[in-house]
Amino acid sequence: MNKKYYFMAGLPRSGSTLLKSILNQNPELHTEPVSPVMELMYWNDFYFTDSEQYLGYPKPKSAHKIVSSIIEDYYFDIEKPIIIDHCRAWSNNIERLKTYITPNPKIICPVRNITEILTSFITMIRRNSDQVSFIDQYLIDKGLPITDDNRCEYLMSKDGIVEQALWAQSQAFIRGDQKYLLMVEYDDLIQKPNEVMKKIYEFLEIDFYSHNFEKIENTHREIDDQWYLKDMHHVRSKLEKKSSNPKNILSCNILNKYNNLEYWKYSNHEYF
């Protein structure tokens, strides 16, 4: 079967699990939790540029075939014709996609205001107070006080998953490659799902499928043990927004510091 490959990147806590659960209602389409495909491609690619064995007798066509076959091999057991591979680093690997998979990559990017993302993490940690989250474990390891401000500062540091995703996505904008991205705002997905889904199908250039927003199920649930946040990938069966207002959760310091970073929306953003 000749499969079509598309991609998902975006920001954490921005509806990617929800969106994938909706997309998986389409019997022609398959998507699942974050995959290792991009990292496997990256490290194999790196090997062929750094290996003494390979450089001693290079075979570029063989190297290209090995790297380009990774995604096919990873999804060998999937019989559906359309696959969306999820990795937040895809937006910073567009040239790799063009070299090994498709000359016209299409990357769906769920996004959300940064202060709302931070609020989502804080409320989730509070909700799972019986666990030591990966965020709090980092603070403990660094000998830092466990406070909401420190939690946010870690998430927005170079080691934090929010900043890492922000940075990876920003590279497409800096390089002028945003034409390969479709930004999907979390609020739009919740408030006008039909319109958002039509835009996604138009962007992917595949036949539209009418989705059911009253009966959503996460059929490929990611194991949350590594995060120590047991409901990190929970999806409600019906579309609704129950998020807390950042002003009621975050300190003034965090609200002010991480306001207006949404470079995909504002020309006067403060991120770059």
Main β-sheet, in a few words?
A: 5 strands, parallel
Helix content: 40-55%
Class based on secondary structure composition and strand pairing: alpha/beta
* Shape descriptor: globular
Oligomer: single chain
Helices and strands, in order, run as EHEHHHHEHEHHHHEHHHH
Count of strand segments: 5
Average pLDDT, rounded to a whole number, is 94
Cα end-to-end separation? 43 Å
Radius of gyration: 20 Å
- How many helical stretches? 14
* Largest sheet strand order: 2-3-1-4-5
Q: Runs with pLDDT <50, length 5+? A: none
Q: Provide the β-strand percentage band.
A: 5-15%
Describe this structure in words.
This protein is α/β, with parallel strands linked by helices and 272 residues long. 44% of the residues lie in helices and 8% in strands. The chain has 14 helices and five strands. Strands 2-3-1-4-5 form a five-stranded parallel beta sheet. Helix 2 runs antiparallel to helix 4 and helix 8 packs across helix 9. The protein is globular and about 60 Å long. The mean pLDDT is 94.
Give the key terms:
single chain; 272 residues; alpha/beta; five-stranded parallel sheet; 44% helix; globular
Write the layout of secondary structure elements.
Layout: E1 4-8, H1 16-23, E2 29-31, H2 37-50, H3 52-56, H4 60-68, H5 70-74, E3 82-86, H6 94-100, E4 107-111, H7 114-127, H8 134-141, H9 148-155, H10 161-174, E5 181-185, H11 186-191, H12 193-204, H13 246-249, H14 252-257
Parallel strand pairs: 1-3, 1-4, 2-3, 4-5
